[in-house]
Amino acid sequence: MRTGSTSSPPSGGYSPAAPFVQPPAPKGRRQPALIALGICLIGISATGFVFWSHQAAAKSPVLVLTKDVGYGQKVTADDLTTADITLANGINAVGADQLPLVVEKVATGQLHAGSILTAADVASAPPIPAGTDLVGLTLKPDDLPDGLTPGRKVQLVAFKGWKIPAGTKFADLSKIPQPPDWMVPADPATWSATVVSVDKLRITVAVAPADAVMVQEYAHNAGALGVILLPAGS
Description:
This protein is of the alpha+beta class. The chain has helices at residues 32-58, 99-102, 209-219, and strands at residues 59-65, 80-86, 106-107, 122-123, 133-138, 153-159, 162-163, 184-185, 188-199, 202-207, 226-229. Among the domains are: 59-123, Antifreeze-like/N-acetylneuraminic acid synthase C-terminal domain (Type Iii Antifreeze Protein Isoform Hplc 12, Alpha-Beta Complex), CATH 3.90.1210; 133-229, no CATH class.
């Protein structure tokens, strides 16, 4: 039997037994400054968009009062302007496009210049003050003071009669056409009231329920009831 050694392959030859090694991928060049700049720009853009969206959604064109308007008075176009305002939650403001529907309505309370007009601030007719009754009065022209408008506070005055000095004896006082000079008016009865509406010589006032019957009784007697116009805002 022949024996011997196996000769090695020639130098530089291919050996199928040699393992294949994958060369490492080339490393990319990092640019930290550019990456940081990109992230910063993205953040600024996102913040600006959110801020712009928030501002656009928060502001609304609404009606704002330019003058004071008293209770029961009609609201005119000159009393209002428009403004873009950020509204707080729960404020039912009247939009600027509702101006034609608001004009000629009446104020349900004292409205102040600079305030936002809300839906509850106006109505088609003056509201009845809480806890009051309405009484209609027909007065003579001379009994109506100037400046009598819905919402104004007034004092109704009526004389109960005449005081007769003690000891005076008359068989029938009704035969006296006019009270003599020594007779003095009795203490007048007065009632606080709020004017709700004015229609020529007839006015409607709101009074306390306990006073309504008495006021109505005097109202039926021509000349027995007078109206005193109290200062505005009283």
